[in-house]
Amino acid sequence: MAALFTGKVLMANRERDEVETERELGRALENKVLLLYFGSGRCPRCRRFSPLLKDFFVRLTDEFYVERASQLVLVYVSRDETEEQQSAFLRTMPKRWLALPFGDGFGRELGLRFAVSEVPTVVVLKPNGEVIAANAVEEIERVGPACFRNWQEAAELVDRNFLLAEDFDEWSMRSITDPFRRLKYKLDKKTEAKNKERKEEGEES
Fold first, then answer.
1. Are residues 100 and 194 in the same domain?
2. What's the CA gap between 199 and 175, in Å, rounded?
3. Do the beta carbons of residue 151 and residue 60 sit within 8 Å?
4. Which residues on neighbouring strands pair with residue 103, listed in sequence order?
5. Is 157 within 8 Å of 138 (Cβ atoms)?
6. Which has the closest alpha carbon to 116: 105, 125, 107, 129?
7. Where would I find the H helices in the chain?
8. What pTM was estimated for this model as a whole?
9. Which residue among 99, 141, 165, 178 sits deepest, i.e. has the most Cβ atoms within 10 Å of its Cβ?
């Protein structure tokens, strides 16, 4: 997904920090479902939808609701009339949101690329840039955070940290001794092979 933003700049919400290097973009976007939110703080429909999207995002990423943040990232693509309007809107949204700088021409390119004809629009993308949903506004309104599971499956995300509770219990009990067990197994096999060779040499002589 970082390839989509190669050579571009993303802003961390409510901060002056820019996320622009290949390494930073990779860390921020890799192996995650990406939401492109085309909206405006002045649009009446956006004003009704944005609080729902905020709650949706927070319930999937905030430690108050979940032990580990979902593999989800959101980039705000502004249709605001002024930079002040964009800044005022973003101050009311989660800090984890990213945003294109105000007036960045790349926002228009993204709008054309994904055929965005109205706001609010939420384009849902796989990590490789393929479209999961051209506009998920109604789905988010209707289903809420539960729809992320469908996106996660569609994106075939690799959840490297996930272990079922029973697997974790079993793993934690054996993880300390496993390396020693494997080492002992290798040594036993090596000893067995050497003994076999000596026996064969003795028989030949």
1. no
2. 37
3. no
4. none
5. no
6. 107
7. 22-29, 44-61, 83-90, 106-113, 137-143, 147-155, 165-174, 178-204
8. 0.76
9. 99
Report the percent of the chain where pLDDT is more than 70. 74
Banded pLDDT at 192 (limits 50, 70, 90): low
In this prediction, residue 113 carries a pLDDT of 97
Could you tell me the residue range of the domain that residue 196 belongs to? 174-204
DSSP H helical ranges for 5-136: 22-29, 44-61, 83-90, 106-113
Q: What is the predicted pLDDT for the residue at 83?
A: 94
Cα 117 to Cα 155: distance, rounded to the nearest angstrom: 25
Computed on alpha carbons and rounded to an integer, the radius of gyration of the chain in Å comes to 25
Residue 151's H or E segment, with its range, is helix 147-155
Q: Who contacts 167 (Cβ-Cβ below 8 Å, separation ≥6)?
A: none
CA distance 164 to 118: 42
**Burial category of 121 from C-beta neighbours within 10 Å (exposed 0-12, middle 13-18, buried 19 and up):** buried
**Would you say residue 168 lies in a domain?**
no
Q: How far apart are CA 68 and CA 189, in angstroms?
A: 42
Could you check whether the bond before residue 44 is cis, i.e. omega within 30 degrees of 0? no
How many domains, the chain?
2
In a shared domain, residues 133 and 37: yes
Residue pLDDT, tens place only, 104-163? 999 999 999 999 999 999 999 999 999 999 999 999 999 999 999 999 999 998 865 544
Length, in residues, of the chain: 205
Is residue 50 domain-shared with residue 125, that is, in the same domain? yes
